[in-house]
Amino acid sequence: MAQIVIIGGGASGLVAAIMAGRNEAGVTVLERMQRVGKKLLATGNGRCNLANRHLDVSHYHGTHPEFIEGIFAQFGLEKTLAFFESLGVDIQEEDEGRLFPSSGQASSVLDVLRYEMEQLGAAEVCDTIVQSIQCAHGALRCVCGNGHVYEADRVIVCAGGKSTPNLGSNGGGFKLAQGLGHTIIEPFPALVQVCLDAPYLNQIAGVAIQGKAEVLVDGESRGTEIGELLFAKYGISGSAILKLSRQVSEYTVKGRDTHLRLDLFPAISQGALYEQIRQRIMTNSQKPTNFCFVGCIHKRLIPILLREACISNPARPCGDLSSGEIEQIATAMKGWTIPCSGTQSWMFSQVTAGGVDIREVDSVTLESKRAPGVYFAGEVLDIDGDSGGYNLQWAWASGAVAGLHASTC
Ligand SMILES: Cc1cc2nc3c(=O)[nH]c(=O)nc-3n(C[C@H](O)[C@H](O)[C@H](O)COP(=O)(O)OP(=O)(O)OC[C@H]3O[C@@H](n4cnc5c(N)ncnc54)[C@H](O)[C@@H]3O)c2cc1C
Where are the domains of the chain? Predict the structure, then answer.
């Protein structure tokens, strides 16, 4: 019976353990936290958005995102759903193809994974940090911080990235890979709040609106999203921003000139907005300029937008505004452009972009090309997905494929 050690009891590690166990391997999962699956419990706000109906390569990023195709060809959406059904998890679909357990509980997903592992006789060893993997004379040794050494025929590294280190993944997997001679594509946080460089953030912290956000890098558009925009003291978050945060993170880390352009009225053209403002001003001509937009946009945004529009003396009657000034207000409302200074730290990011260079990993088996017998799965690899269930989908699929191949050869 092949002995397999899995480093990391997160989403990918638990599925790797089950697939290897079902293939009759002896399995030991080594986990640095007091218990396995801590991050899994936090996913989808405790509801676990475990996959997405619209699975395809366009939702994945990294230096070579097409790498995922070989893995999903072996363990795609249908197999993922069948796998969870075999464990007793009913799935329900929500907006944008997002798939959740019908129980609405991430804990139920963790429970059934652990139950299956137990049935298969896979061992969980917690409070155990693997510090290095040694390869000598065909045998593999996982050397742990507590002095224990676990020997194995094959090792699967499922140690995650650097995001939310309080939930377990602290970049330790990258160090293990480097120790084996692997290259690490410089990691940066993704699915994370964006920090803005603007003097008025304290005034608008807590304001939530719907709108369109666009990332501009050196003046060129790098992506747009429509959805919630939520201002904070440090900058901005909300669903639209989380989706764009990868681009902001990547380019601010590189020191590139990065801005967010916000459109508060994405459903209408600038001309139509100009006309709407003009009508509003005609019927409210005696109202102060800084009051005439109350009821049309969030009150706390009005002074900021009038300043962005360079409207002098905003207490004067709005009927005094020139057509040029109305145009400036329409431009500010549809093209409010704010410099980005970076993103919030690893502690707040849901996903790590970057990781083990996938050119050094077999695209069918996920075995290391540097260290035979060692496999990689999950976020430790240079693959990250959009929000919406794509990251867990990658973790399950890569874990299953690595578990299967590690226990077959
Ligand atoms: C708050 C939050 C919400 C999220 N929600 C979703 C969602 O709804 N849908 C979705 O698709 N994705 C979501 N994600 C992302 C998703 O959780 C991850 O992409 C996924 O868990 C990665 O799985 P993994 O197995 O690669 O790594 P992890 O789940 O991070 O597991 C890695 C494990 O390895 C252990 N470990 C690390 N180093 C060592 C070591 N040296 N020795 C021993 N053990 C070690 C860690 O303690 C950890 O348990 C969310 C992430 C966060 C933070």
Answer: 3-188+353-408, 193-343
pLDDT at position 187, please?
Answer: 98
Whole-model pTM above 0.85? yes
The Cα 341–Cα 198 span in angstroms is 9
The CATH architecture one would assign to domain 3-188+353-408 is 3-Layer(bba) Sandwich (3.50)
What's the order of all strands across the beta sheet hosting 3-7? 123-125, 26-30, 3-7, 154-157, 374-376
Q: CA 107, CA 109: separation in Å to the nearest integer?
A: 5
Which atom, in ligand 1's list, is nearest to the CA of 8?
A: 34
Q: What is the whole-number distance in angstroms between the Cα of residue 192 and the centre of ligand 1? A: 15
pLDDT at 183 (0 to 100): 98
- Of ligand 1's listed atoms, the one at least distance from the Cα of 379 is 26
Distance of CA 160 from the midpoint of ligand 1 (Å) = 5
Mean pLDDT, the chain, integer:
97
Take residue 388 and report the two structure tokens written for it. 């919406």
Atom of ligand 1 nearest to the CA of 384: 19
Distance 232 CA to ligand 1 centre (A): 26
pLDDT for position 54: 97
Measuring from atom 51 of ligand 1, which residue has the nearest CA? 350
- Model confidence over 149-158: pLDDT tens digits? 999 999 999 9
Q: What is the Cα–Cα distance from 154 to 310, expressed in whole angstroms?
A: 65
Per-residue pLDDT averaged across 240-245, rounded?
Answer: 97
Nearest CA to ligand 1 atom 6: 43
What is the pLDDT at residue 179? 98
Distance separating alpha carbons of residues 349 and 327, to the nearest angstrom: 38
Distance 170 CA to ligand 1 centre (A): 10
Q: How far is the CA of 16 from the centre of ligand 1 (A)?
A: 14
pLDDT (tens digit, 9 = 90+) per residue, 33-42? Answer: 999 999 999 9
Q: What number is the average pLDDT over the span 151-169?
A: 97
